[in-house]
Amino acid sequence: MTFNRLHKNSYPLILCNVWDVNSAKIAEKLGFQAIGTSSAAIASMLGYDDGEKIQFEELCYVVQKIAGNTFLPLSVDMEAGYGRTSAEIVNNIKKLATYGIAGINLEDSIVNAERILVDGKRFANILYEVNNKLNEADLNIFLNIRTDTYVLNVPNKLDETRKRIELYTKAGADGIFIPCLSHEADIKFLVDESLLPINIMAMPDLPNFEKLKELGVKRISMGDCLFSNMSAILKHKLSKVMDNQSFADIFSDSKC
């Protein structure tokens, strides 16, 4: 089944977010249908803050390793594209495409001193150019477009999100990603307003998958929550080693 088709099933695509070969292999072994990189997890793994602080070449190295060690469709979180023009973004997508990726995420915010939302029409124009250039190059890459209206809690975020969905749909998006969206009424409204599959992200108060299916959500991703959880467990285990001057806690509930 193609990556695009996975967004059209009655049950949502549960996208496992990964950051290295090991996490990708675990996802494949457990039966996930697709994987996607987490920019925040990869950045943290390499010692950076999130927000395009890593070099694009470093991202490419990680993506190439993951793609070369799994049969699962792979979507790459490109953040804002590692470029500010459509030509720069397309060149970066083309490089990632050589590794056999199935899709990308592009977001409508940029991080300088802080994360700010890009003007919707300006971003849509860039997206339109990116989509046209990819079509000209005969590259079939799923464009999952992330809007950060809920991440940044902008004024009138529900209506602003609706407007941006309309703009990005016309510009050639294949899917819409709305992280930090978890309220059932908002999810239902935006799903009903959208012609494209809606992707939401793991949140503490997110409804369960069956409920999200009823609401019409087509893709559910994890962000960096697995990586953060794993890091917290590592910190806890190491603190026990230091506190108890023993390795006993490492082997409790362990496969070692």
- Average pLDDT rating: 96
Unreliable segments of 5+ consecutive residues: none
Order of helices and strands: EEHEHHEHEEEHEHEHEHEHH
State which percent range the strand residues make up: 5-15%
Counted beta strands? 11
Give me the CATH fold name of the largest domain.
TIM Barrel
Counted up, domains total 2
Ends distance: 36 Å
Shape: globular
Task: Return the structural class.
Answer: alpha/beta
Main β-sheet, in a few words?
Answer: 9 strands, parallel
Helical amount among residues, as a percent range? 40-55%
Report Rg: 19 Å
Give the oligomer, counting copies of the same chain as homo and different chains as hetero. single chain
Major sheet: arrangement of strands: 1-11-10-9-8-5-4-3-2
CATH-defined superfamily of the largest domain: Phosphoenolpyruvate-binding domains
CATH class of the largest domain: Alpha Beta
CATH architectural arrangement of the largest domain: Alpha-Beta Barrel
Number of helices: 10
Describe this structure in words.
Strand 2, helix 1 and strand 3 form a beta-alpha-beta unit. The strands form 2 sheets. A 9-stranded parallel sheet has the order 1-11-10-9-8-5-4-3-2. Strands 6-7 form a two-stranded antiparallel ribbon. The mean pLDDT is 96. The chain has 256 residues and is of the alpha/beta class. The protein is globular.
Kindly list the characteristics that best describe this protein.
single chain, 256 residues, alpha/beta, TIM Barrel, nine-stranded parallel beta sheet, two-stranded antiparallel sheet, Pyrv_kinase-like_dom_sf, Carboxyvinyl-carboxyphosphonate phosphorylmutase, ICL/PEPM
